[in-house]
Amino acid sequence: MKKIFTILPLMIFGLAISVNAQEFGNLAQPQDEFKTIFGGRNLGGYGAAGIGYTLVDDRQGISFDGRFGAMLNHSFAMGVGGAGFINSDEEITALNQRIFLSGGYGGVFAELILLPKFPVHLSFPVLAGLGGITAASVTATSGDGTIQNNIQRTLVFMIVEPAVELEFSFTRTFRLAGYFSYRFTTDVFMEDGIAASDALTNYSAGLRIKFGKF
User: Fold this and answer.
1) Which CATH number covers residue 116?
2) pLDDT digits (tens, 9 = 90+) for 139-160
3) How far is C-alpha 72 from the chain's CA centre?
């Protein structure tokens, strides 16, 4: 896990260098021409929302996410994003309760887009940040049968989530993507058999819609 958090900044830095490499190579511009940080490249941006299937502590769950990013030259994006998740409840013998896990995380992401002008293409986003997970019990009251949730544990974790997306460009401002991602997180320690230490290290797969200037 420590190696992932060490290598990730180097990967992001390398992507940024590759996107701007041509600008550094073109030094024969007239001296009276304005030079800008982005070298006259195309700038854009987008917002996205997604929903998918995931496993949390090897139990089925739902994930949902959102992100906002700025795009450089159609092929590289950076921004902020976040996601939430909830899984199915399970009987925990030590607590004599049915427990489900839920939570969320957020951070920054970098995304490399291959062949962005083609109607169908691939992108490779990586998100890194922090999150929290909560274990809650499901209790039916003896009165009217109303379901109540009582929080049992709450923990904080670090996360790196690489993904691959298959994008379909329907219009210049709308894209639909199918994605597959994998969460690498620090361990979560929950007593009484509530969840395994690697409960969050697993995959998600789903659909994501994107609107913006691509």
Assistant:
1) 2.40.160.20
2) 766 566 666 778 888 999 999 9
3) 20
